[in-house]
Amino acid sequence: MTRDISYTPEEVAKILKISRFTVYELIKRGELAAYRIGRKVRVEEKDLEAYKHQGKGLPAAEPRSEAIPTRVSGGESLVICGQDVVLDILTRHLERRQVRFLRTYIGSIDGLMALYRGEANVATTHLWDSDSGQYNLPYIRRLLPGHPSVVFNLVYRMEGFYVAKGNPKQIQTWTDLLAPGVRFVNRERGSGARVLLDEQLHKLGIDRLRINGYEQEEMSHVAVASKVARGEADVGLGIEKAALQVQGVEFVPLQQERYDLVIRKEDLNKPPFQALLAAIRSQAFREEVSGLGGYDVSRMGELMGEV
Fold first, then answer.
1. CATH class, 158-257 region
2. Distance of CA 230 to the CA centre of its chain
3. Cα–Cα distance between 85 and 210 in angstroms, integer?
4. How does strand 122-125 pair with strand 78-81?
5. Chosen CATH of 1-67 out of 3.10.260, 1.20.120, 1.10.1660, 3.30.300
6. How many CB atoms lie within 10 A of CB 115?
7. Domain-by-domain residue ranges, the chain?
8. Are 280 and 261 in contact (CB under 8 A)?
């Protein structure tokens, strides 16, 4: 019989003989799967074993679960997919409203797929479609067939390049990634930043394999910016907020993106989802996010479309 065992970050730190701060960083980067129950973070035993096997260069004992339930049922709690720090603030506001929730740190495409499979009931997404020039709605139509959904804005963010102080390589546009000697660091497959890059390359007719470092991946905006700050890459792609958090990098703005919440229409009138909408439409939440810097909250909580 499979054991159902989970650990706190402190217990994981003792097992791996590392600091608990390193454990939280592994979770934030997506290298160690975890989930939230209220304020508590938990790591399942099978995900810890999978991480240990990968660290030894061995195949994982079993596929990683991405720390989301096999099936969401009952509609009495939220399973929220997304990585942005804005969601950390949102979950605190949900706690104040006594809303039960789980949080899983996965990217836009994986979040929509979890919504489609019934493994989550709230997904965040920032996926740009080069054919239409739209954010999110084209992908939701394709990835959630047969699941009518509603889309609400959370924030607008600026996406751009992280470069070293003074921008010594003079990187300003997408084509500059092809310049001799420029080393790039990418985001993981399925992330909104990776999709934006691939769509822009497709639009410009650029073969991605011509970019030095295209296959080098990091699991968060901060990790990408940090690699540039350490001089291990010359340029990476991510949101402005991370550039404000990491010393030693400058930000080259490229494109404003829309970061939305996606909910199945059948769930919309259930109490937890109404509480979620009330939270993101509250003045307190708006002011707290605005105070972070790097976010445009002008359309926060607005219905952006039904799919």
1. alpha beta
2. 23
3. 33
4. parallel
5. 1.10.1660
6. 25
7. 1-67, 158-257
8. yes
Spatial separation of the C-alpha atoms in residues 185 and 213, rounded to whole Å = 6
Determine the residue type at 190: G
- Any bridge partners for residue 124, and if so which? 261
pLDDT band at 52 (very low <50, low <70, confident <90, very high): confident
- Token digits for 286? 């708006």
pLDDT tens by residue, 122-152: 999 999 999 999 999 999 999 999 999 999 9
Asked if 17 and 54 count as a contact pair (C-beta separation under 8 A), the reply is: no
Structure tokens given for 288: 């707290």
Task: List, for residues 160-185, the tens digit of each pLDDT value.
Answer: 999 999 999 999 999 999 999 999 99
Q: Count CB atoms within 10 A of the CB of residue 76.
A: 11
| Residue of 30, 52, 51, 40 whose CA lies nearest to 9 | 40
| Predicted structure pTM score | 0.77
Copy the structure tokens of residue 279.
């939270």
The label of the residue with tokens 């592994």 reads 26
